[in-house]
Amino acid sequence: MESAAVSLEAVEKRFGSTVALSSLTLEASAGEFLVLLGPSGCGKSTALRIIAGLEQPTSGTVRISGKVVNEVEPKDRDVAMVFQSYALYPHLSVRKNIEFPLRSRRMPAEERELRVKEAARSLQLEELLERKPGQLSGGQRQRVALARAIVRQPKAFLMDEPLSNLDARLRVEMRAELVELHRRSRTTVLYVTHDQVEAMTMGDRVAILRGGVLQQVGTPKQVHARPANLFVASFIGSPPMNLFPGALLDDPGVTLGVRPEHFSIGDGGPLRAVVTLVESLGHEHHVACRIGGADGSLVIVRLPAAVSPPEIGQQVSLGVTDRVFRFDSESGQLLEAT
Q1: Strand ranges of the sheet holding 33-37, from the earlier edge strand across to the other edge
Q2: What are the pLDDT digits (tens) for 69-92?
Q3: What φ, ψ does residue 180 adopt, rounded to 5°?
Q4: Domains of the chain by range and CATH?
Q5: Taking Cα atoms as reference points, which of 154, 157, 159, 185 lies closest to residue 86?
Q6: Which residue of 140, 210, 238, 308 lies most exposed, with the fewest beta carbons within 10 A?
Q7: Is the peptide bond between 239 and the residue preceding it cis, with omega within 30 degrees of 0?
Q8: Alpha helices in the chain (DSSP H)
Q9: Chain-centre distance of CA 112, in angstroms?
């Protein structure tokens, strides 16, 4: 498949007095898997719909393969969109659902058949081609929706929360299938999700939005190791970063951040705390501790499975084993990581 660079330049989108996107500038390189990540209402789906041509930007420029497409009809942009809902035709077989966009383009029957077989093989649907959507599982229906997009051989895929209707096990399986599919095709993918684990495990880069404003763009490693601000720090990481007012250390101008895996329990650390909850997940433990009494700060400590966690109610000492992040309390911007 041919892939294309996709870019938004100073794109703004208003719905009445509501600003959905504010001067968004972002580019996905040809062949890149770029994830748009953020909470509900942050503007990520709006950005995708603007690229697809389903929404018109209030201002700004949209480019595909370097060409301005603001006035180009959705059908002529050569992108394929995969939605959260499968949007399959229930009365058509899997085969006919997959080939539907090719029939719409009046593609010859021989070429249609070749493309359908190729897409079905890539997504392990060959044994299901004669079934109707009602006879399929949720994961199978999502694969059919993906095959219908793939069969068009577009220059870019636009995926809007495509796995959110699946259960946890199927989500993991489909994440792996999508990443493998991208590696084979190297087609540009813009993928919208609110799930930071999904974003960090799938994306070549992650673009984090909040309230229609781009907060940070970088590789998963970059945004985790050096978050640009307090929002990114609290949104990226599972469990998220622990944040403390600098007043704890007589510096009210800053907020301090420590990742859960960078705390140690015991060893005579300088912080005194009481254990309030222990979550044992098999591969690791999450230990919730309260510093400074009942109204004090809550700290989450991540311990490896091989370490025995303390008991609930136990008084412990906490130490920091790795970097501490300092953020400006007023602007939220990162000052340093030491």
Answers
A1: 79-82, 156-160, 188-193, 33-37, 205-210, 213-218
A2: 999 999 899 999 988 777 889 999
A3: -65, -40
A4: 6-232 (3.40.50.300), 240-337 (2.40.50.140)
A5: 159
A6: 308
A7: yes
A8: 44-52, 94-104, 109-122, 138-150, 168-185, 196-202, 220-225, 230-235
A9: 33
Q: Per residue in 172-208, pLDDT tens?
A: 888 888 898 899 888 999 999 999 999 999 999 999 9
Which two three-digit tokens encode residue 230? 């307090």
* Residue 181 and residue 123 in contact, taking contact as beta carbons nearer than 8 Å: yes
**Tokens 């945004």 appear where?**
223
Sole residue written with tokens 């997959």? 98
pTM here is 0.89
pLDDT in tens, the chain (338 residues): 678 999 999 999 999 999 999 999 999 999 999 999 999 999 999 999 999 999 999 999 999 999 999 999 998 999 999 887 778 899 999 999 999 989 888 899 999 999 999 889 888 899 999 999 999 988 888 889 989 988 988 999 999 998 887 788 878 888 888 898 899 888 999 999 999 999 999 999 999 999 999 999 999 999 999 999 999 999 999 899 999 887 555 667 899 999 999 999 986 788 899 999 999 999 999 999 999 877 788 999 999 999 999 999 999 999 998 889 999 999 999 998 88
Asked if 242 contacts 300 with a C-beta cutoff of 8 angstroms, the reply is yes
Per-position DSSP letters for 101-152, written without gaps between them:
HHHHTT--HHHHHHHHHHHHHHTT-GGGTTS-GGGS-HHHHHHHHHHHHHTT
User: With contact defined as beta carbons under 8 Å apart, do 329 and 246 qualify?
Assistant: yes
Main-chain phi, psi angles of 93, to 5 degrees: -70, 170
Radius of gyration (Cα) for the chain, nearest Å? 24
Dist. CA 112–CA 130, nearest whole Å: 16
Q: How far is CA 111 from the centre of its chain?
A: 35
Integer Cα distance of 84 and 61 in angstroms = 26
